Amino acid sequence: MAVLPPRSPARRVLPRAALVLLLPALLLPGPPAPAGAAPAPPAATAPAGWAWPLLPRPRVVGAWAPPAERWLRGHRGVDLAAGPGAVVRSPADGTVSWSGVVVDRPVLTVAHGAGLRSSFEPVESSLRPGDRVRRGQAVGTLRGRDHCDPGTCLHWGVRRDRDYLNPLLFVGALEPSVLLPVPADLAGRRRAEAPDGVRGLSGAGGRAGGA
Predict the structure, then answer these.
(1) Does 128 score more than 70 pLDDT?
(2) CB atoms inside a 10 Å sphere around CB 89
């Protein structure tokens, strides 16, 4: 008696008409998000939760003024008003990557991850490279007038890899630009000096705009 081979399981085959109806449904986007759902926020330019390295909040006495090119001179950080011996604190969690003297002043650098580093000078510290620090932890003391002579200040710089960033961005201290009204006498002089074809544009509505 001949032995028949076992039958393979039957495959389900959709009719061609069913595929034609199904493909558009597969290609269409999913259902819209509920009305109350907020869209995902864009990537932040700076991490949140950083703190000022001095308490109480210090006054900025030296603005961030980076050079146009890496090799040119510039102010790659901000100067914060402080007296000699002021306690310097870590603005965020991190690890000490440098503690020592650079040229003639003590410098402390803390790595915060993601390529970010804070540098402080002139700051004396007992910490050593590899020491872990927490946000707000005292990391050193200001050592006199090495940077803002004849006054005293703390120089705070922030760098992401090789690029210097404005430290004020990390503590939410950058204020938006505001266009101020042009004084009436200056606006009048501008209208008088403007070419005939544009005189009416600067004083529309009796008010001139300024750059």
Answers:
(1) yes
(2) 19
